[in-house]
Amino acid sequence: MANEAKPCACDIGDKMDYGGLGDEVDIEHMKAYIVNPASSSEKAIVVIHDIFGWQLANTRYMADLLASNGYIAICPDFFVGKEPWNPSGDWSKFQDWLKDKNATNINREVDAVLKYLKEKCGAKQVAAVGFCWGGTAVHHLALRYPQLKAGVSIYGIIRDTEDDKYQLHVPTLFIFGEKDDIIPLDQVTVLEKRLQEKCPVDFQVKVFPGQTHGFVHRKREDINPSDKPFIEEGRMDMLKWLKKYV
C-alpha cells in the first residue's frame, strides 16, 4: 500500500483513446465484450479486467490484440454491473469499494463464460489472461479450474484468501514490474520460491526492470519511448505462453 491517503498505487496510467473492434453481449447475469479472430477458431481467451472495469479501452485493446493472433477474446464484466473504480475518486475509500469485488469469488461468472464459449462460440480450448485485479483472478483460476489450458497473470498475486496459493493445475506465466508499488519484489520472490517447491505444472515468474504497475496494458508506447521495449516484450511473452499451451 502506498499511504493512507492513497492506499492503492494503482493509478490509471495512460488511458487509450480506443473504441475496440468487438461487440458487447449479454451472458446470463452479466455483460461482456467479445471480439472474434479473422478466421474461425476453437481457441478462446477470457480476458479479466483491472479495477477500472471491463469497458476500459486499454483492456479492450488487449482483447483485440489476442483476437488478431487467432483467439476468440472475451472480456466479461466481473463486477457484474457494479461501478468500477474511478481514478479521480477518494483513495481513502478504496478498500470499502473493494469489499464486494473479491477477485477470488468469481466462479459463478467464470462458469457462465465457459458455458457461453463452448455452446455459443464452439470453443474447445480456453485460457485466461488478467491484469492487476484480473491477474489475481487468473491466479485463482489456475488453482481451481484445471479445464483451462493456460493462464497469464499480469501484475496480480493472491496474498490472503487461498489456503494454498501454489498448487497450480494450469501452466501459468506471472509478469511483474520491478518498480511496482503494489506488489513488492519480496512478495514476487516468495511466490517464485513456493512455486518451485510446490507447483506440479509449468510456470514462469518474470520481472521487468524499471517497470511500474500496469505497464503491459496501461502504457502507450508513443508517449513512453524508453518503456516501449518492455511493453512489447511483456505482450510478446503473453502471446508466446498462450501459443505454447493453447
UniProtKB/TrEMBL annotation:
Keywords: Cytoplasm, Hydrolase. It is found in: Cytoplasm, Cytosol. The keyword Transport does not apply. Residues 30-245 form the Dienelactone hydrolase domain. InterPro entries: AB_hydrolase_fold (IPR029058), CMBL (IPR042946), Dienelactn_hydro (IPR002925). It holds the Pfam family DLH. It comes from the Eukaryota. One of its GO terms (molecular function) is hydrolase activity. PANTHER family: CARBOXYMETHYLENEBUTENOLIDASE HOMOLOG. This is Carboxymethylenebutenolidase homolog. It comes from Anguilla anguilla (European freshwater eel).
